[in-house]
Amino acid sequence: MNYCRRNLIPHMFLICLCVVFTVAVSFGAVKSIVTPEGIYGHPDLTKLPWCSYTKHDPNRPVPAFIDTGTREVSVEPPSDAVVLFDGKTLSAWHRSDWKLSDGIMTAGGGFLTSRKSFGDCQLHLEFMVPQKPGAVLSNRGNSGVLLMGLYEVQIFDSHPSNKQQIYPDGQCGSVYGETPPLLNACRLPGQWQSFDIIFTAPVFEKGKLAKAAAVTMLHNGVLVHLNTTIHGPMAWRKISQYRPHGDKLPLKIQGHGSPVSFRNIWIRPLNNNAKMKSK
Predict the structure, then answer these.
(1) Are the C-beta atoms of 156 and 133 separated by less than 8 Å?
(2) What is the rounded CA–CA span in Å between residue 104 and residue 229?
(3) How does DSSP assign 133-193, residue by residue?
(4) Which residue among 176, 223, 228, 254 is the one 20 to 30 A from 63 at the CA level?
């Protein structure tokens, strides 16, 4: 009897592994494709509740490209802005593996987190994806701006000169994993680009979501989001849900192992939600 039990346990373990793998394949957890148009994605995950597409769906319509030129425009911070990076110091951020050299900040492998916290805000930052693409698609200028450390606007090398593109809800300027930009306003790798983001934080009342977060945004001066609803915190290959949190949280910029460069980052706190709560 003991001999049988000893032999039965390994077999049961293998059977369990097979079942888990089969379920994973069935739900798209281990499947990805590249469409004939060269778009990488995962088309067989659960549909997003607010649209007819799945998360990271490569068959989702690709935003049309618009040429924003090559002229560099660097917008100086207004007098009421909180300067997060002026090319001189990283003192506005918690210690990280990010580097400062010749007035440029280069992404490391982990998050860069602001010392101050913000809610509703106007954010300006300038970035440049590297001219030499990463060895794998996921590292091709991959970074992101996480408003309140949770809600991500993607940074990526999505210029149409690339032969292979990432899924539309993961391309540059997207609300990551949710909504592609209205247009693809990317410049070539090695050229400076800008995001101007107006963000309204979610509002929670009695532990429940009363108002979702939203974003309006310009990419290189072109409108790519207009009061776009953010349906939850950033998540890869799953649908995340809102959880109550404070009115203000630190800003984060994602490091993904790709040497994306940054300069001229400033933020203006707004008070829209405070006014809403007072009514």
Answers:
(1) no
(2) 32
(3) --SSGGGSS-EEEEETTTEEEEE----TTSSSEE-GGGSTTSBTTTB--SSB-PPPTTS-E
(4) 254
Find, among 127, 163, 160, the residue nearest to 142 by Cα: 127
Q: Is 6 helix (H, G, I), strand (E, B) or coil?
A: helix
Reported as a single tens digit per residue, the pLDDT across 111-148 is 999 999 999 999 999 999 998 776 677 678 999 999 99
The DSSP element (H or E) to which 266 belongs, if any, is: strand 261-269
- How many angstroms separate the CA atoms of 47 and 54, rounded? 4
230: CB partners within 8 A, 6+ apart: 151, 175, 178, 202, 212, 213, 214, 215
Residue 186 DSSP code:
P
| Residue-level pLDDT at 135 | 65
Question: Domains plus CATH for the chain?
Answer: 58-270 (2.60.120.560)
Rounded to whole angstroms, what are the CA distances from 45 to 29, 41, 127, 233, 246?
A: 8, 10, 32, 18, 31
- The DSSP H or E segment spanning 7 is helix 2-26
